[in-house]
């Protein structure tokens, strides 16, 4: 097969005009059932595949979704992608993935590219509070937008999907408090890059409840920056006795910094991660972390992007969201997994 | 901006016909320089973006490349993707990523989708020996094909990019032999899924050179399958004293199996990984592995996909590939990093 069959080949084989063949293949009305079946059979026999560019020009839809990640270096996003693709397999949908690498400029470029490709919806783990979502909505008004791992304050008409951030922070703080820690550092992005204010808000609330001074540490959340910042922290006159991170990925930077400065994790410095990556239990020492099902998060993301969630909600149990036709936000449940990276304060 | 400017808006602003505007914006000949400048200025003022679908229909090119990965769960591919995107940033190119998840069927579906989207080239880490590359070439004859992490025997006109697999295997076997190991298991994919015969060939050669019985272990290379297979191996009457894996990712499965069966890694069972992921040095015990620069691999991949390699080669040093106009295969250098997961045989 070196020549792609074209619609005129399908039409010839079915004995109809190309226009009629096109109508049938695109499910438009005005084609008799028997003729439609004959055209579909001819298309199947020839292995005809519709040209998505032609379809996109005609319908404005490309049967694809964009997934724009602020930091694809973090392996948790692999689970999220796997879950989304799992959900997408049965529908004829392509998920296009791109990495903003913590750059506002690259984020905007990717959004422009996605919009130009006519993706039908955008899921975005934004670099900052989500200003580039406005660009997306200017370019593709009405297309669904799912905001991932972000509070996105001030954005209406977006669906939010992420872990239960407030509960995750509270679990970590309470666990460390019970171990006797009173000086807890909390790693968070610089304000201008911060996507999820809920984490910091909840940390400050939890500290207030427990009478602790909050100690947020603002740092870009890539591995090198975390390592450098935590090394400086451990060199300070009053290093914290514990560190809460936003991911196992950044927790690796804390391990590296602790090792560099001769602090033993779990004894001199307690560390709490987030995500329970496959490696978390294999680290030295095994990492106390917040477990979250990244694949489930990815499935929830796809359902909301594609509208499957709203469809299901409409058919749902009368006692459980009946009549709901709009997708709703999704907070993935979290739980604390205690391992040896956290211990009693010394 | 709720209405995308169209080419006719650009034409009106520049005071030319839409056809002339289109010619100028697509760099075709027959447009006077002053007129061309006026049209480009009008396009810039209006924020006009070419519609890639229209361009793809017209030129057959979409300014995008497909990257099809057999197992996106392995974090090394994040580095490869990051490197490729790094190289792609300066050109106006989108890299579309998809995951075959070790399924031949999904691999073929993704290739059909990529071809239908008119991607200009395909980079593929194939599930098996690369049969689906034939499908790709039927659908997109003449488009460049880069085969990643695979020998792809019998495939002509493909460019191969990967780590120096033969040297990686030899480094691992020699290291274990020097530590006294004479019974070394070698994890490799089942023959029908095997993408890289070089690894197994080299293992058998190295064993023959050293007078060792080769002990290949054929298993699907996902975490669960590796863990199950290695657990069975450790339960056998004659467990090996060392295991060589194809990646740090699969080495995690060996760690989990060893732990489950009460074997201490580095003492009862030596383990060699491949990739030197950021976590390798943080594991308990730190992992002996083959270091490879995944980002450099990704950059090499993009250069070959886009033809940048051939362009550069043509301008190159006379003593160093002068006159070369075709991209060549790339074997990324590897080195052994010895840590505590390997020790003297007991």
Description of the structure:
The structure is a homodimer of 346-residue chains. By secondary structure, chain A is an alpha/beta fold. Chain A folds into three domains: 7-50, 434 Repressor (Amino-terminal Domain); 64-162 and 294-332, Response regulator (Rossmann fold); 165-292, Rossmann fold (3-Layer(aba) Sandwich). Helix content of chain A is 42%, strand content 14%. Chain A is built from 13 helices and twelve strands. In chain A, the strands form three sheets. Chain A has a six-stranded parallel sheet with strand order 2-1-3-4-5-11, sandwiched between helices. The radius of gyration of chain A is 25 Å and the shape is elongated. Chain A starts with 6 loop residues before the first helix and ends in a 9-residue tail after the last strand. The relative contact order of chain A is 0.12. Chains A and B meet through helix 4, helix 5, strand 2, helix 6 and helix 11 of A and helix 4, helix 5, strand 2, helix 6 and helix 11 of B.
Q: Name the assembly state.
A: homodimer
Taken together, the total number of domains of chain A comes to 3
Architecture per CATH nomenclature, i.e. the level-2 architecture of the largest domain in chain A:
3-Layer(aba) Sandwich
Please outline the major beta sheet of chain A: 6 strands, parallel
Q: Helical stretch count of chain A? A: 13
Question: Could you give the order of the helices and strands of chain A?
Answer: HHHHEHEHEHEEHEHEHEHEEHHEE
How many beta-strand elements of chain A? 12
Question: Distance N terminus to C terminus of chain A?
Answer: 72 Å
Give the overall pLDDT of chain A as a whole number.
88
Give start-end ranges of low-pLDDT stretches of chain A. Answer: 313-324
Largest interface: A-B, 49 and 50 residues
Helical fraction of chain A:
40-55%
Beta strand % of chain A: 5-15%
Global morphology of chain A: elongated
CATH class of the largest domain in chain A: Alpha Beta
**CATH fold topology of the largest domain in chain A:** Rossmann fold
Task: Please state the CA-atom Rg of chain A, rounded to the nearest Å.
Answer: 25 Å
Please identify which CATH superfamily of the largest domain in chain A we are dealing with. Response regulator
Widest β-sheet, arrangement of strands of chain A: 2-1-3-4-5-11
């Amino acid at each position: 097969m070196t020549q792609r069959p074209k619609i005129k080949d399908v039409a010839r084989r079915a004995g109809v005009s190309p226009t009629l063949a096109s109508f049938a293949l695109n499910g438009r009305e005005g084609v008799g059932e028997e003729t439609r079946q004959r055209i579909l059979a001819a298309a199947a026999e020839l292995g005809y595949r519709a040209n998505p560019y032609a379809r996109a020009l005609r319908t404005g839809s490309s049967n694809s979704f964009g997934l724009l990640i602020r930091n694809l270096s973090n392996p948790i996003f692999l689970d999220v992608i796997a879950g989304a693709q799992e959900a997408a397999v049965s529908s004829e949908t392509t998920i296009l993935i791109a990495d903003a690498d913590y750059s506002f400029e690259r984020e905007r470029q990717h959004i422009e590219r996605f919009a130009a490709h006519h993706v039908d919806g955008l899921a975005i783990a934004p670099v900052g509070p989500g200003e580039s979502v406005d660009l997306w909505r200017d370019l593709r008004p009405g297309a669904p937008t799912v905001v991932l791992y972000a509070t996105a304050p001030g954005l209406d008409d977006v669906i939010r999907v992420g872990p239960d951030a407030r509960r995750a922070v509270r679990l970590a703080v309470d666990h460390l408090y019970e171990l006797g820690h009173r000086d807890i550092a909390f790693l968070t992005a610089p304000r201008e890059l911060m996507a999820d204010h809920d984490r910091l808000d909840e940390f400050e609330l939890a500290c207030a409840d427990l009478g602790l001074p909050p100690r947020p540490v603002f740092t870009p959340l890539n591995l090198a920056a975390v390592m450098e910042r935590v090394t400086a922290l451990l060199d300070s006159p009053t290093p914290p006795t514990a560190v809460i991170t936003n991911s196992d990925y950044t927790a690796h930077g804390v391990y590296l910094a602790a090792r560099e400065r001769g602090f033993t994790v779990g004894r001199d410095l307690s560390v709490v991660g987030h995500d329970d990556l496959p490696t978390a239990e294999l680290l030295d020492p095994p990492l106390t972390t917040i477990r979250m099902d990244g694949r489930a998060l990815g499935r929830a993301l796809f359902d909301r992007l594609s509208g499957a969630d709203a469809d299901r909600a409409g058919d749902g149990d009368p006692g459980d969201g009946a009549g709901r036709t709009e997708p709703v936000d999704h907070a993935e449940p979290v739980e604390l997994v205690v391992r040896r990276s956290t211990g009693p304060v010394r």
